[in-house]
Design brief:
The protein has 202 residues and is an alpha/beta fold. The chain has eight helices and seven strands. It has a seven-stranded mixed sheet with strand order 3-2-1-4-5-7-6, sandwiched between helices. Strand 2, helix 3 and strand 3 form a beta-alpha-beta unit. The longest helix is centred in the last third of the chain and has 14 residues. The radius of gyration is 16 Å and the shape is globular. The termini are far apart.
């Protein structure tokens, strides 16, 4: 759907995560897309316990060597999260960095059978906006909620506020209320969207 992420945004991604980590005294991180572990090196090296998914076998093997105290799964994160994989830990820091859209993984995590903490921090690198630039938003079922209230023509321009509304609505189903939010567009033609949210149980 979308090309691979623009690595020029890495510095911004890392800064956003470093700031978000300050919201938690003892973060338990879940990375949905581990890649080659660059974000771990930059942000999570001092986090003693966490979970990471990666469906590429070579990358998964590298991640297992990189973080021996973490749970490392060679798996499709959406399917695994939906089935409750990683529920042995109470994750309070959810990091989504897919090549395209994050919404299937967000839904899989928030609708799965797992313990949910009193405070949950979510950080996202979202590549869906580039796809919406073409006016093809009606084909992206993941943003149907935004399409229903705004219409296809404005999905691209209003995508950041749509992200906030959608994430807030999805988290509310687990009893969360949005406490803090930060977000911006970046990368080539501002096609990437970064955002972070702090949720607390009502």
């Amino acid at each position: 759907m979308t090309p691979k992420k623009d690595n020029s945004t890495f510095r911004l991604k890392a800064q956003l995560r470093s700031k978000a980590l300050r919201e938690l005294d003892q973060p338990v991180v879940l990375e949905t897309h581990g890649g080659w572990g660059k974000l771990f090196d930059q942000c999570y090296r001092d986090v003693p316990v966490g979970i990471v998914f990666e469906n590429n076998v070579r990358k998964a093997e590298y991640l297992a060597r990189q973080r021996p105290t973490w749970a490392v799964y060679e798996a499709d994160c959406v399917r695994a999260l939906r089935e409750g994989v990683g529920s042995h830990l109470e994750v309070n820091f959810l990091d989504l960095d897919p090549y395209g859209e994050p919404w299937p993984a967000i839904d899989a995590f928030l609708t799965s059978d797992r313990p949910f903490p009193a405070r949950l921090v979510v950080v996202v690198n979202d590549g869906l906006r580039q796809f919406l630039r073409t006016g093809s938003g009606w084909r992206a079922t993941s943003v149907a909620e935004g399409l229903a209230t705004r219409g296809n023509a404005v999905l691209h321009d209003e995508y950041l506020s749509i992200c906030r509304e959608m994430l807030e609505r999805k988290a509310a189903r687990q009893g969360y209320q949005l406490k803090r939010w930060a977000g911006y567009h970046c990368g080539f033609k501002l096609s990437m969207t970064h955002y972070a949210a702090v949720f607390e149980k009502e």
